Amino acid sequence: MKGIILAGGSGTRLYPITISVSKQLLPVYDKPMIYYPLSVLMLAGINEILFITTPHDQESFRKLLGDGSDLGCKFEYAVQNEPNGLAEAFIIGEEFIGDDKVALALGDNIFYGNEFGSLLRSKINVEGASIFAYPVRDPQRYGVVEFDKDKKVISIEEKPEVPKSKYAVPGLYFYDNKVVEYAKKVEPSDRGEKEISTINEMYLEAGELEVGVMTRGMTWFDTGTVESLDDASEFIRVLQNRQSTMIGCIEEVAHQRGFIFKSGLQKSIDRYGKSKYGAYLKDIVANL
């Protein structure tokens, strides 16, 4: 399975913060936001990843992440000229995806939870589509899943004015290779975007959509607003300082998944210098 991280858009809800910098490069406590979805895909065992950015932000992402070789990964980059919707990611990434399955992570979504890595790795061999549902107070901001009394999916709607449930679809999706052809069939919605909910509806109609409800032990942040960005930063700060573990440390995940070894960690330590992040990597190496 390959991975795509969609890190485009203009981040207007965060203006003036994002006028001159990509939202996905903003700090979430002690790391760039993009580290978190990247660590999620790597935790799933994915090390071939395409970053889709705006034209003017791409060089900043290249400077931060490089070609992925320091992490035992292969990174590629593509451009989304206009925010035409999430489904367009599969059209932009068609050549990159090739004949493989693909996971899509949104660059402004942050996940954390017990056994989350095991859950992710269970999706690698997905047949059809696998997405998640998470209970929220404001489901009208998201794609919304409706279940029947047996927790079977009935419908999926994108940002409905009157949501049929409290279950939002977080920005993490796993698909088989049919997603590319499905994406090409998606027509722009009333919002003028190619909605990923339309792709999910196609899989639902084909009887090939799996929806897992995230349990109370899992946490999801969509950092698209100032309040949610602040909440995510505070969550990361408190959890890291209490547990002495770092969330979203891409080098640590690369080592855990066998993408790099001790020498690779040492190289990263030199890059981060005297920072708290570098000191954390030093502790990992010291305990190997």
From TrEMBL:
This is Glucose-1-phosphate thymidylyltransferase. InterPro entries: G1P_thy_trans_s, NTP_transferase_dom, Nucleotide-diphossugar_trans. Catalyzes the formation of dTDP-glucose, from dTTP and glucose 1-phosphate, as well as its pyrophosphorolysis. Its EC number is 2.7.7.24. Its cofactor is Mg(2+). The gene is rfbA. PANTHER family: GLUCOSE-1-PHOSPHATE THYMIDYLYLTRANSFERASE (PTHR43532), GLUCOSE-1-PHOSPHATE THYMIDYLYLTRANSFERASE 1 (PTHR43532:SF1). Pfam families: NTP_transferase (PF00483). Residues 2-236 form the Nucleotidyl transferase domain. It comes from Christiangramia lutea. Coiled coil: none annotated. GO terms for molecular function: glucose-1-phosphate thymidylyltransferase activity; metal ion binding. Keywords: Magnesium, Metal-binding, Nucleotidyltransferase, Transferase. It is an enzyme of class 2 (transferase). The keyword Membrane does not apply. It catalyses: dTTP + alpha-D-glucose 1-phosphate + H(+) = dTDP-alpha-D-glucose + diphosphate. Belongs to the glucose-1-phosphate thymidylyltransferase family.
